[in-house]
Amino acid sequence: MPVRPKVELSARDREILKDVVHTFLVSGVPVSSRLVARHTQHGISAATIRNVMADLEDLGYLDQPHTSAGRVPTGSGLHFYIESLMEARDVPDEERRRIEGELASSGSDAGHLVGTATQLLSSLSGQIGILVTPVFGDTVLQAVDFVPLSGRRVLCVVVSTTGFVENKLIEADEELSREELVRISNYLTESFRGQTLRSIREQLLTRMSEERAQVDALLARAIRLASRGLDPRGEPELVIEGTSSLLARAELGDIEKVRRLLDAFADRQRLVQLLGQCLAGNGVRVLIGDDSEVTSDLGLTLVARPFGAEDSARGTLGILGPARMPYDRIIPLVDYLGESLGRALEESANR
């Protein structure tokens, strides 16, 4: 991430920077000192504004694409605007009602809830909605159930405390009855509920090497089944909605940029890693341009926040779009949707 300037700006400089950034976000074209001077609240000449804009460029907040053109905000300029100058808008009541209503109508299935949340992100923002589910090994166990199939094949169903369900097909060492599998499921659920799958599997592998695991045949079977079914190496799911809306944007008129964008969506691991950068803390993070490899390559911005309780595995949701987006509306939207999705998942897990 680039080092941002540490110079304290005067009130006048802050107002001019705010004006330049806001005008650029609305118009999408470089902003001239003459245009800023038309905004009479500054009460200073275009020449003075031009000098201030030159100083802001030296500080790294603005850039001049061409010598004869106006200026545009840099990544540092946008960050300063977002963190110090912007007045965020509340999520409109109508959008709040739609979010709550659609999440409520999605039922208690976590997969349906995250799909609905991603669609809402894209629909309400006009950008790409993107979401990654919690890392499987970090999910906290609510219940486990082993279901007999044909022969020695068994379906392991893992339910996390956040409502996510993971199904895994495994093969037992011997054919087991439904009654034996129910006893094994109950034993594992009662013994390990509230622990992460990663921690559970480590404990099971330790028990497999202990002699006492060989004394009780049922316990030995439980340990062997669970060590396969609770393997924490499952991949998080990535959900993307609204790519067509972004491809139609003027900012992506360059065919090479479109190609890079499509390549980025094909490389899902990079997107998962990108969203993983936003897991720290509870609030919204904004990654612009050089803040990450992916946003730098594509010239895009990610506005994202984690969802889920701090003491359990968490996923991330966000909006991916051009750097020129209405941050005062997008940031509150992402924050509200993340909070609402986390609450809906918690309620569904407790039903």
Quick summary of this structure?
The chain is α+β, with helices and mostly antiparallel strands and 351 residues long. It has 3 domains: 75 residues, Winged helix-like DNA-binding domain superfamily/Winged helix DNA-binding domain (Arc Repressor Mutant, subunit A); 156 residues, Beta-Lactamase (2-Layer Sandwich); 93 residues, Enolase-like, domain 1.
Describe the structure.
This protein is an alpha+beta fold. It has three domains: 11-85, Arc Repressor Mutant, subunit A (Orthogonal Bundle), CATH 1.10.10.10; 93-134 and 236-349, Beta-Lactamase, CATH 3.30.450.40; 137-229, Enolase-like, domain 1, CATH 3.30.390. It is 48% helix and 16% strand. It is built from 14 helices and ten strands. The strands form three sheets. It has a five-stranded antiparallel sheet, with helices on both faces. A hairpin with a 4-residue loop joins β5 (153-160) and β6 (165-171). α5 packs antiparallel against α6 (110-125) and α5 (93-104) runs parallel beside α14 (327-349). The protein is elongated and about 85 Å long. The model has no long low-confidence stretch (mean pLDDT 84).
CATH architecture of the largest domain: 2-Layer Sandwich
Number of helices: 14
Q: Give the oligomeric state of the chains in this entry, treating copies of one chain as homo and distinct chains as hetero.
A: single chain
Assign a percent range to the helix content: 40-55%
CATH class designation of the largest domain: Alpha Beta
CATH homologous superfamily label of the largest domain: GAF domain
| Strand count | 10
N-end to C-end Cα span: 43 Å
Report Rg.
Answer: 26 Å
Order of helices and strands: HHHEEHHHEEEEHHHEHHHEHEEH
